[in-house]
Amino acid sequence: THSAFPSKVSQVARKNRTRIVMQDSAAGSYATSLAKLAQSVKSLDVISRDIDKLSQYITNKVFFNFLVNPIIPDEKNKGILEDITNDAKFQPYTLNFHYILIDKKRIDLIGEIFKEFETAYNKLTDTELVVVSSVVKLENQISLGPSQNQCN
């Protein structure tokens, strides 16, 4: 996936370990925490897929406005997110993370957190995003394997 928004992520390498550093943003702090947790429980790829799926819901303005509406009780929001995550078979960590955002009244940052998480994920997995232009129509997502990632 590609994000049009710039990120505030920098990468620091130490003794064969990569540490992601977010700068001056609550969304960055939450994204870093989720990325570290996902990596520590060896679920980085799975949680990233969960985030990608949930991003589709969040981009729906009606759903997002419902989720961030302070009049809607937290338990109602949690119930809706639980239904979505159960139907999609998300990792429990993904659901618990969203519960934290609701409890801390930071669910309004969810879109920014997802963008920052994507950047952190790409750094942790050494993934680089590229833009491909072609005169021939291409599929929406093209993945180049390790042997195909060099231009001649």
From TrEMBL:
Keywords: ATP synthesis, Hydrogen ion transport, Ion transport, Membrane, Transport. The keyword Ligase does not apply. One of its GO terms (cellular component) is membrane. One of its GO terms (molecular function) is proton-transporting ATP synthase activity, rotational mechanism. It comes from the Eukaryota. The keyword Ion transport applies. InterPro entries: ATP_synth_OSCP/delta_N_sf (IPR026015), ATPase_OSCP/dsu (IPR000711). Belongs to the ATPase delta chain family. This is Uncharacterized protein. It comes from Taxus chinensis.
